[in-house]
Amino acid sequence: MNQYFATVARGLEALVAQELEQLGADAVEPGFCGAAFAGDRALLYRVNLWARLPFRILMKLHGFPCRDAQDLYNGIQSIDWSSYLTPDRTLAVNATGKNDHLNHTHFTALQVKNAIVDQQQAMLGERSDVDLQEPDVRINVHIDQDTCTVSLDSSGNSLHRRGYRPAVGAAPLKESLAAALIQLSGWQPDQMFYDPLCGSGTLPLEASLKALNIAPGLFRDRFGFETWRDFDLSLFEQLIQAAEASQRETLAAPIWGSDREGAVIEQAIVNATNCGVLNHVWFSQIELNDVVAPADSGVVFCNPPYGERLGRDSDLAGFYKLLGNVLKQRFKGWTAFVLSGNKELSQSIGLKSSQRIAVYNGTLPCQLMKYELY
């Protein structure tokens, strides 16, 4: 059994722990910005392929007392790197955390890299090159007070970058956050889903992938573990085949998205094509003022602009008031979820929320507000 850690956006630790358990992980333990868990190699591949919420899945190699740069160098050299890295493979080091003596992550990463390549030179007479963009082996070191934890990053590029979304709007929602919001809402695939401010379509697309049981990792070019020394290609191919075989052919209820901007609807259609759901999800150019409920009940979901990156010069309070009026007057019998990072603007909606869930959009504290529309 290997020890793993799934990194996740702040505030979603309990949610990712639940997802990991559903995927078959053992000894799941939520921590700060992630959850520790245990499992075999098949689980590592499966979690990378299927998990909708994490950014990265780290495999723990070693932990040791570490007060200063010399402790760090010695601790890194105590690992036999030939098991994980040969000189023909490239490496990159990512450092997080700090203590009194190791308080600069760039220096920490450099010290780790030096310890590894010095060991290679001493043992083999040659060393790995550094590739910060697409390394064969990505090493993660985390300093927490007087302890250093060393891991291999099995994901490569962040898992939130599904690979289906080259086209994004002006203020895109991360795919992993969209999936988390859908999970937090309690939406079920037998309920209609509608986003009237869909931008490049992230919320409807993540809902579609969930409803059709499509593994989000299927659209990626590669995972970090594919260039590891012990990569098991036949096992990974079996997991991909099983994932493809488990997809559903039809939606249980419609999933719609609309937006006032024709250009972003075109982006949404490109993204839907890339993840193979264009025949399932419906996108259309509609002004918010013209939006009407397409069914008697369902879940309406939206991430309106809240002044951080969009619409600084526009009348956002008026826009939020219009959103509130549209929901109140035209969506009776529905449940609405609105993500907002601006408390003042959210009050302009003019509806009483039945629930508020604190979430982070990047570093911005936000609230997911639930409205029961009678």
UniProtKB/TrEMBL annotation:
Which ranges of the sequence are coiled-coil? none
Query: PROSITE patterns given for it?
Result: N6_MTASE, THUMP, UPF0020
Q: Give the superkingdom in one word.
A: Bacteria
A GO MF term: rRNA (guanine-N7-)-methyltransferase activity
Give yes or no: UniProt keyword Methyltransferase.
yes
Xref: SUPFAM superfamilies: S-adenosyl-L-methionine-dependent methyltransferases
Q: What keywords tag this UniProt record?
A: Methyltransferase, RNA-binding, Transferase
Note one Pfam family from the annotation.
THUMP
The record, for InterPro entries, names:
DNA_methylase_N6_adenine_CS (IPR002052), RlmKL-like_Mtase (IPR000241), RlmKL-like_Mtase_CS (IPR053943), RlmL_1st (IPR054170), SAM-dependent_MTases_sf (IPR029063), THUMP_dom (IPR004114)
Family annotation (CDD domains): THUMP_AdoMetMT (cd11715)
Annotated ranges, domain THUMP = 43-154
Question: Can you say what this protein is called?
Answer: RNA methyltransferase
